[in-house]
Write a structure and sequence with these properties.
5 strands; about 625 residues; SGNH_hydro_sf; membrane; disordered N terminus; mainly alpha; Rossmann fold
């Protein structure tokens, strides 16, 4: 009976609808992260659906054959997923070589970790943030989720077989053990979350596996309800679910859509309960798709359009970010209107790649390419496929042998540049300390140096396009500057104009880390009368963060450079919050870097976040003018 029922539910139209909404959510998030900040939640829905389908396959095997055909299970998953995955990687690498060679630098580790399905751990180890990656994601950033999924496929069949063995006499174990494991995993998600970095929580297999398990629990529950020996307590539970189906479906679906809109990948509540809640909503919807197949909602979610998109959702997911990143790079200096049309065109291009991948790669490998006839191998489709693969292999080969000759576009070169700037800042910090200690005390000494100082002021005024009076005002000021890698870039120019400034900057720093450093300096009595904050690029600034800075600063003047993070979800909220506090506190001065940066894309390195020379000097000028205007 279990086998017969399994065949009946081998295709569930409503699930294609869930896949469609999920992949559309991810696409919209990658296109317009400020507007569709919760679109990344589509990955959680994918995880639940995968958990349900994989558990259903395992249960079907156990019911039909009395054991799990493990080799067959792994081979089917391999041929279902790996060929299209590898072709996408090869083709994308080739396209990078021809259209965006800077994207090839540092790609070896990414390629290897993806091919072995451990990319999520690679991104954790290399601190590759999904939500603080600057203006552009990498073409392969999204593949972390496929690594998590592959690891689940490897472990879960063995685990579920063991769980069902333990539950042979006590059916409750078949639900209680997975529920316990899911709770542990969701607890780890909340524990691993940190405002400073979401990487460990977001990418970790252990902290994300609960979504798969909850999907698996839906499959186990449905199997129990359909068995002739179904316990009475589950029968009563089923009646309740049926009685209130309209309400539960409405709440689950609307809750899913709301989370797709309001969730933000850097906010604590998403990790505390948001993803868990979304997983439960998805599992409930799947339950109704299976148990009430003629429900109107199931029929709506299984419409032709959703079935078409859903069937190709895997290939759509594979190609969406490579297409976005490469086209964005090609058209990066065009107007917003052009970017809008490029976004629409990119969606069409993704659909084209996905359809070709589905027809020529997914389906043939899924049904066994070994049985293809000689005639089909010589068809036009396969000739074109061969050409695409040849192009991909050529590009991959060229990508591997290419050297690091592409100037500042290289991510490796950016890291080297920031390291070099850090050394400059360290040397200048030492000089600033010496300058403070050896300040001239006699008025005559000051007079003898005034002529030289005026000449230097005029020279610096020319460099920074400001007045010599402003330079003279800020040159002797003691300033504590705290920030992230953007301050590392700006630091040398800042210390050229303000030689007594002490710069404390670090790559990847988040707001709370900067505040902790600020508190340490205050405790050590090293905090200057003027504080400069260049922080907010890598994540959210909260009202509590600003209050902490105000408390630490006391009567000191705080100058805070607002955020320009290439359209990341926290950019707008950060700047609005700073603007509101600026109006309330006379000691807080917000420097509007965002407006100038937004109007001058030529100021930036290819990541769209770190300023180059013109951008460094523009920010330094804004800082000089703001401090000079505010300090008497």
């Amino acid at each position: 009976m279990v086998n017969r029922e399994a065949k009946k539910t081998s295709f569930i139209p409503g699930i294609e609808g869930l896949r469609t909404l999920s992949v559309l959510g991810v696409i919209l998030f990658h296109l317009w992260p400020k507007i569709f900040s919760g679109g990344f939640s589509g990955v959680t829905v994918f995880f639940v659906v995968s958990g349900f389908l994989m558990t259903s396959i395992v249960l079907r095997d156990l019911a039909t054959f009395g054991h799990l055909r493990l080799k067959r299970f792994y081979l089917r998953r391999f041929w279902r997923l790996y060929p299209a995955f590898v072709v996408m990687i090869l083709l994308t690498t080739a396209l990078l070589f021809f259209f965006f060679p800077a994207g090839l630098f540092g790609i070896r580790g990414t390629l290897i970790s993806n091919l072995f399905y451990v990319n999520n751990w690679y991104q954790i180890l290399h601190q590759v943030s999904y939500f603080a990656a600057g203006a552009h994601w990498s073409v392969f950033t999204h593949l972390w989720s496929l690594s998590v999924e592959a690891q689940f496929y490897l472990i879960w069949p063995l685990m579920i077989t063991a769980i069902l063995y333990l539950a042979d006499k006590k059916w409750q174990f078949s639900l209680l053990i997975p529920a316990f494991l899911a709770l542990i995993s969701s607890f780890l998600l909340a524990v691993f979350y940190s405002p400073a970095s979401t990487n460990r929580a977001y990418y970790g297999t252990d902290s994300r596996v609960f979504s798969f398990i909850i999907g698996g629990m839906a499959a186990i529950l449905i199997t129990l309800l359909r068995s002739q020996a179904c316990p009475e307590i589950l029968r009563r539970f089923q009646k309740l679910l049926t009685k209130y189906s309209v309400w539960i479906i409405s709440v689950s679906f609307s809750g899913t859509l709301i989370l797709f809109v309001i969730a933000n990948g850097v906010q604590a509540w998403v990790y505390d309960f948001g993803m868990l809640l979304l997983s439960i909503f998805t599992a409930l919807l799947i339950y109704y798709f299976v148990m009430l197949p003629k429900n109107h909602f199931n029929l709506i979610m299984g419409n032709r359009f959703f079935r078409y998109i859903g069937s190709r959702s895997y290939s759509i997911y594979l190609y969406q970010l490579p297409v976005f990143v490469i086209l964005e790079e090609i058209f990066r200096n065009f107007s917003p209107l052009v970017h809008f049309w490029v976004a629409l065109f990119s969606i069409l291009l993704i659909m084209l790649f996905a359809d070709l991948s589905y027809r020529w790669i997914e389906m043939p490998f899924r049904h066994g390419m070994i049985h293809m006839t000689r005639q089909s191998l010589m068809s036009l489709k396969n000739v074109l496929t061969a050409l695409l693969i040849a192009l991909a292999l050529t590009g991959t080969f060229l990508g591997f042998i290419s050297n690091d000759a592409t100037h500042s576009k290289s991510a490796d070169q950016l890291r080297r540049h920031l390291k070099s700037e850090s050394k400059k800042i360290s040397r200048q910090n030492s000089q600033a300390v010496s300058a403070r200690q050896s300040a001239v005390s006699s008025q005559s000494a000051k007079s003898s140096q005034s002529s030289a100082a005026q000449g230097q002021d005029q020279q610096l005024a020319g460099i920074f396009q400001t007045s010599s009076e402003n330079i003279a005002k800020v040159r002797q000021l003691s300033v504590t500057a705290i920030g992230d890698s953007v301050l590392l870039d700006v630091g040398p120019d800042l210390q050229m104009a303000m030689p007594k400034a002490i710069v404390n900057a670090r790559i990847g720093r988040h707001t709370q880390e900067a505040i902790d450093s600020l508190q340490t300096l205050k405790d050590e009595k090293k905090l200057d009368p003027i504080i400069l904050m260049v922080i907010g690029t890598n994540g959210e600034i909260s009202a509590d963060n600003i209050q902490q800075v105000r408390h630490i600063a006391g009567n000191r003047q705080v100058f805070w450079v607002n955020s320009f993070s290439g359209g990341k979800p926290w950019e707008g909220p950060n700047n609005s919050l700073l603007s509101n506090f600026d109006k309330q506190d006379s000691n807080l001065h917000v420097i509007d870097w965002y407006s100038g940066a937004h109007a001058h894309p030529e100021w930036f390195a290819p990541d769209g976040v770190h300023p180059q020379r013109a951008g460094n000097r523009a920010m330094t000028t804004m800082i000089i003018n703001s401090i000079a205007d505010s300090v008497k």
